[in-house]
């Protein structure tokens, strides 16, 4: 942390200079055709998912059924039961999934577990080390932190929870906030230079989570091998017991490391922030002189570095650029195409509801589920944040493989590129949804209410065209960045040692007053980047000219295709219920009731023939509103009484839970009483959910 702090203090003024320069000079980039949401409105006051899971407890080696809640922060909380959550009690614990891997089979988990203690392996034919309560496990693996073991009762539950947990990993691994224009680049550059000083140039897949988690991963990267040599030989018992005990020790050390690095990082950050005002004043006063001085040093360094860089480029990189680009383009483009298809299918479903002379009143009814402010469009509004519906899109890009090129350029894993592409896919989906809602709302203003299906269709066509253009722009940028992440570390590893002794003499060319804003190490990397950037730009441009994977040429610009659209960019999220009628939520008070009524992005699961215990299964969790998925029935009011047909269908779907009815009036009264007492949230079983 002392070395990292020194590097951070060096990089902070450089990042501040770059931020101020960008603010003054600006940057020309293609204008987005889709609107961007200014706030996180879709997830406000909502949860991603919640329900009961069997959790394995290390303390007593037993399985316990507990209630798990996934909020919009994607940090999972778990409670003793659903009642504890409703009462607002503190959770039993919380899990941040940054750096975790989500696994659906015990075999894959054991393969990863063997990497934690090399040489410790269970004997062939030995009994499974972990006996799951059911045949549908969900396992969370981390190289340093505690592992978590869950299981559910059905395959459908397993697939849904796997998608939810993977989305939590995707969200928490999404890097540091880009809104921090100075702190984030200073931090990432300091981490990168720290690893490069130890010969580690490749893209680091543990660059995930909060700054504290990233720094703890940085410490553990070197510390864990020392701990393993010291402790592993003293562990006794069966192979799995030794591996599990080792992970418990590693988790304890990991927690201690996080506590220490958090305090030290906050001290360094506070010191840098306190010195920011005078630095920024100097930058704004002497901007032209600083830029001139930097360009002078850069030109001198180019004369020294570029000849050797060009030689390395021609011999070891240029022959592989096209093949690496193709390996990136195919699965990524399939994923973005699937996003387009999923979005299209959702809008088609909305249009079908408005056929046969639908009026604005009917639209208001369709946009509102009785007793909820959960509208028919709500599944579309939540589409980007619905991990189950987006899973087919994410799976396309997970097929990304670099094969032999991965070893040639020392790329330890493609997970960094996969998760980045998936985040971009989610952003594009949300932009498309937001744009559709704004255009639809504008089109409905002053409209008589005729041919609403045609209006929806026209809005859909406009958004799809804009999505195609933005998808091409976003993918081209992603391909360029991914190629740089693959090739730049390789070039730096080859070029840094020969030039290490030459770089100090360039410091003499920098005025002392500007030495904090111009570092020769940073200029060296910029020169190396400059040497390869032309080839990468050309490769991506050629792919666009050939219209491969539906990429647009750079010359195709849609600046004036919809000039009035961006006037809607600052509009708030549309309250469809308030404008077009429908029943709002009942007026209730109390924090516990608010928690029970929180809307949920992923709907609950209903399985035919199952008999869940009240409040103790993720098949039925009372008081959490559900967003109905494709192929599922519409949710009903939380407090409304079931209709006769629904009661009959529920009895058919759960024959073992039906009360011992006799005949006539007794049947009706006993059955109604049973249902009213047993259930609060109900899914429409009549849709025969698979």
UniProtKB/TrEMBL annotation:
Q: Give the matching CDD domains.
A: Niban-like (cd23949)
- What's one Pfam family here? PH_Niban2
Please give the residue ranges the record annotates as the region Disordered: 578-597, 626-673
| Gene3D superfamilies attached to this UniProt entry | Pleckstrin-homology domain (PH domain)/Phosphotyrosine-binding domain (PTB) (2.30.29.30)
What residue spans carry the Basic and acidic residues bias annotation?
645-655
Report the residue ranges that make up the PH domain in this protein: 46-170
Check the record and name the SMART domains matching this protein: PH
User: Domain of life of the organism in this record?
Assistant: Eukaryota
Q: Which family does it belong to?
A: Belongs to the Niban family.
Write down what this protein is called: Niban apoptosis regulator 2b
Its lineage opens with: Eukaryota, Metazoa, Chordata, Craniata, Vertebrata
Gene assigned in the entry: NIBAN2
